[in-house]
Specification:
Length: 604
């Protein structure tokens, strides 16, 4: 944190001499309104930490940063400030030790300036008061003739980044982390590189008041967290100036970041463009737009196998994570969904890309990583429609081993140790989130999200995984939240003719089903399974939801509780011509090897 704050101050030389460009609203809880011309002394003091920090900028422009024990008497901190301020003048010119010694012998250094801290009511704070108590918001630090308004724990940005890949027509959302504030309360100002034009054009821009320092000009419409560059930005870099804020309309020091490269041209028409025509607006009360989507984890897209065997038809650059994230963020944002269940989400992608982007579009994100993996499941829900009551995520293999809910299934598996071992080796997880409607507290929904075992011969493993998942969901919706309807989404790696699909949609599976012997007769396990739900596939049985060079089939589903929910509409899938424009998926116009399923649900 110390290095971040130091870097922020040094990176913003213009802020040393003036207030940030955004007006500070009234009622911020500091003395900014009474003393508008006063410089800032930023104090960071967190009770759980032993030290506090004090940061300010001297009149010569040099930044000063100190860390002091919170329990230390104020007098010692003020003495250190005086000493540092005095050294600032001596260090103004860089000289050799000998030259400095000769200069100091000829002209004695000036005495350290007088330093005092005044409370908000103008009284000098006693020097024996502990630092943690002395440095209060609204106090005034005086160093010689200079006065600094103390701002204790103002909102601060600890991280601010722009994506490496910027495409015209695709939303750019910064990754940012705020301390003592929230990304949703920050102020944003976007700039674009100024085009190389004759001097008269530059003068005109400056006269219009739009030019920013350093060859940057304010981007039209660039005052929101998300900025979508147009074709006019192709070849130009972008800059973002972000001022951290909190819910009390208090603002901290701005910070800026420039893109590492220019905006590039987009890929043209994408597979999801036509689908967005059906999802321009968020659904009204009583409707739930739900999306399930395997987004293709980067850990799988960037393997030699993927590039040369699985997706040899896909241009290498369009398999790059930054490129695919551009497409994915635009696609998901355009669905205006209430609930999104994603599979194969890289941990870093959730934290650095999808989480921040969808948060900016009003969606709260939850993540469940697979055991010993770098990817997992993500569930997003619209904040103004739902609040989170509780989470009940599990690892399927661990639940089978340890949870008493699955004792009967364990007993059935006991005679088949090889199958049992394979189930235990799988890292599949189940994400279960119970949401409550913000408009009607009596309406709750259980959203389950999973990704079952992938192997073509693993039908028996998927049956057992589905049984574990449904038993756990039953526990949540019957024992913890009785009579709560279910939306069960995921990549089930199961076609409509498979045992897992039949089991989920029919409620039972017979012991003679062929999938019990999917890995050969020597590993056949015979058992019957049942669950109490009445589930149906909301999007039916599409011809395919996964389309790669050597395979296409329907593997993804949105199962809904048919007793409580019904389908209002299913958003049409891309046409076969769109899917195969570049032979198969993924492609330059589609970010994954799967296709998102989208439907609008309503309560019965």
């Amino acid at each position: 944190m110390w290095r971040l704050l130091r870097g922020t101050l040094r990176a913003l030389p213009g802020l040393r001499r003036r207030r940030p460009p955004q007006p500070r609203p009234s009622g911020s809880g500091s003395a900014s309104g009474a003393l508008p011309a006063m410089e800032r002394a930023v104090v960071r003091c967190v009770p759980a930490e032993p030290k506090l920090s004090v940061s300010f900028v001297l009149g010569d422009g040099s930044a000063r940063h100190m860390q002091r024990d919170q329990a230390e008497p104020l007098g010692r901190a003020l003495a250190r400030i005086a000493n540092n301020a005095g050294k600032g003048h001596a260090k103004a010119a860089k000289k050799s030790k000998k030259a400095r010694a000769e200069a100091e012998a000829a002209v004695p250094p000036p005495p350290p300036p007088a330093v005092c801290l005044f409370s908000q009511d103008g009284e000098a704070v006693a020097e024996d008061v502990p630092n943690a108590e002395a440095w209060q918001d609204g106090a005034v630090l005086q160093i010689g003739e200079a006065r600094y308004r103390v701002e204790r724990n103002p909102p601060a940005l600890t991280e601010l980044q722009l994506p490496r890949s910027l495409l015209a027509g695709f939303p750019v959302c910064p990754k940012l982390r705020a301390e003592f504030g929230s990304p949703r309360d920050c102020l944003f100002r976007w700039y674009q590189e100024q085009k190389a034009e004759p001097a008269v054009g530059t003068a005109a821009a400056a006269a219009a008041g739009g030019e920013a320092p350093g060859g940057w000009v304010e981007a039209p419409g660039g005052a929101e967290r998300v900025f979508t560059p147009s074709n006019a930005h192709i070849g130009l870099r972008l800059k973002l100036v972000c001022t951290p804020g909190n819910g009390q309309r208090r603002y901290g020091l701005p910070r800026e970041v420039e893109s590492s490269g220019p905006v590039e041209a987009g890929p043209g028409a994408c597979t999801f463009d036509a689908r967005h025509l059906y999802t321009k607006k968020v659904t009204g009360p009583g409707l739930i737009r739900t999306v399930t989507y395997n987004v293709l984890a980067d850990v799988y897209a960037q393997t030699e196998l993927s590039r040369t065997v699985l997706y040899p038809y896909c241009a290498p650059y369009s398999l790059e994570l930054d490129y695919r994230q551009n497409l994915l963020k635009k696609e998901l944002a355009g669905y205006s969904a209430d609930i999104i269940c994603l599979q194969e989400v890289d941990k870093s992608v959730f934290a650095d890309s999808l989480g921040p982007a969808l948060d900016a579009f009003g969606l709260e994100g939850l993540f469940k990583i697979k055991e010993k993996q770098h990817e997992g499941l993500a569930t997003f829900y619209r904040r103004d429609k739902f609040s989170l009551l509780s989470q009940h995520d599990i690892a399927l293999n661990q639940a089978l081993l340890e949870d008493s809910l699955h004792k009967e299934l364990r007993d059935k598996l006991a005679p088949y140790p090889e199958v049992q071992e394979k189930v235990h080796q799988r890292s599949s997880v189940l994400q279960v989130s119970v949401l409550q409607s913000t408009n009607d507290s009596s309406r709750k929904i259980c959203v389950a999200n999973t990704h079952l075992y992938w192997h073509p011969k693993g039908g028996n493993i998927r049956l057992i995984q589905a049984a574990i998942a449904l038993s756990h969901i039953r526990h949540v919706t019957h024992d913890i939240y009785p009579s709560t309807p279910v939306i069960f989404c995921g990549d089930f790696n199961s076609t409509p003719s498979s045992g897992a699909y039949s089991f989920i949609s029919c409620g039972s599976i017979a012991e003679e089903h062929e999938d019990w012997g999917s890995n050969g007769e020597e590993q056949r396990c015979t058992m019957s399974l049942a669950h109490p739900f009445r589930l149906k596939s909301a999007c039916g049985e599409p011809a395919y939801t996964n389309y790669v060079g050597g395979f296409h089939g329907c593997l993804d589903y949105i199962f809904i509780d048919a007793n409580a929910l019904e389908v209002e509409q299913v958003i049409p899938l891309p046409s076969h011509e769109e899917v195969t424009t570049h032979q198969a998926l993924p492609s330059v116009s589609h970010p994954s090897d799967h296709i998102a399923l989208i439907c609008d649900l309503k309560w019965k």
